Amino acid sequence: MDFLPPLQRSHIMSRIRSRDTVPEMAIRRALYARGLRFRLHRRDLPGRPDLYFPASRTAVFVHGCFWHAHACRLFRQPASRTAYWTPKLASNQERDRRSRAALEAAGIRVITVWECALRGRGRRPIDSVADELAGLILDPSRQSTEIGGSDQAATSARMPTRALGGASASTLAAAAATTLPASSAPR
Questions:
Q1: What is the pTM of this model?
Q2: Dihedral, CA atoms, 79, 23, 56, 136, nearest 10 degrees?
């Protein structure tokens, strides 16, 4: 049960941004200060990466741990409206997986920076994250990877089954495909 009235909840949810978030801006500033230049939100690439480095053919996503159901302390399965949130979060993860696979098939490396790397108890100094990220971007021999917080339970992009009441991510993805109408599909 939501403790906020629907109008107030709607207002709060309308303020959540998909681009230019605090973690994304911190990463952008730190990489720009290190002399790295990038393109923002390329619409012609699958998943519209937050940052794209054409010279090294590297896409960087800065993911919020809640919205992408990361296996860390910052993610907690919502207790209210589980019939909506469980398939929604599973479909977000499935979309992330498809985008990553399409980018890698096109020869583009994918690096995911998780919000927990920059926020929460396990956060790391921004310089540490930016140095690691810059090293990954500049080294063409490095494969696609993820950067998370120091207390991260797992670096897997899969949703933890404990947070889903025992359901697997694939079961939830199938439920999402049948539960969400086309008009409410995540964008």
A1: 0.74
A2: -80
Is residue 33 scored above 60 in pLDDT?
Answer: yes
pLDDT tens digit sequence for 145-158: 999 887 654 343 33
Residue 27 has which token pair? 């990463």
Q: For 144, how many CA atoms within 13 A lie in the half-sphere containing its CB?
A: 21
Burial 130-159 (b: 16+ CB within 10 A, else e): bebbbebbeeeeeeeebbbbeebbeeebeb
Q: What is the spatial distance between Cα 126 and Cα 118, in angstroms, rounded to a whole number? A: 7
Report CA-CA distances (Å) from 115 to 21, 27, 127, 140.
10, 10, 15, 25
Residue 93's nearest CA partner among 157, 150, 48, 25 is: 157
DSSP state letter for 115: G
